[in-house]
Specification:
Structural class: mainly alpha
Number of strands: 2
Order of helices and strands: EEHHHHHHH
Helix content: 40-55%
Radius of gyration: 29 Å
Largest sheet: 2 strands, antiparallel
Strand order of the largest sheet: 1-2
Strand content: 5-15%
Length: 177
Amino acid sequence: MTMDDSTAIRLTGHTAAYPATREAYDALRRYLDDARRALRGDPDADEIVRDLEAAVGDRLSTLPGPGAAPVTGARMTAILAELGPVGPAHPAPPGVGAGVRGRFWCRIPEGGWSGGVCLGLAAYGGFRVDWVRTVVLLLTLFTGGLLAAAYLVLLFVLPVVPTVADYERRRDAPRPA
């Protein structure tokens, strides 16, 4: 690479312009653009990006002075690796934002024997429905019918999802914003 392929990088908090190759400049630009994307919606995004620029400038200021060779792409990549990836400063609380809905309690009357509560529990836990039915039957016998009362409550309280395929589609669908 010739000297014609170099450029000067000016960074927040530093008066000096650092000579750098086009590869180094592009690596820095990608890093800062990725940081802006990762921080989109964060009220402190501009300040964080300025701090990142200043941190890069601090590292570049330790390099040899004027007349030195421009910062290479490899050197810039090493500096950016030291800083690490950028994520939101204020991450969304659990259960808020993008992502899939995930597992949820319901009853699935498709092929259900008595309301689909066992099939809903099997879909929630990823179990075979015949095992869930067996455990529910045995626990109902051992608790003297107490589990039957809980089963009746679940029968009236749990939301209905018509089929297992519908359950899986809703479970894997993005959360509403």
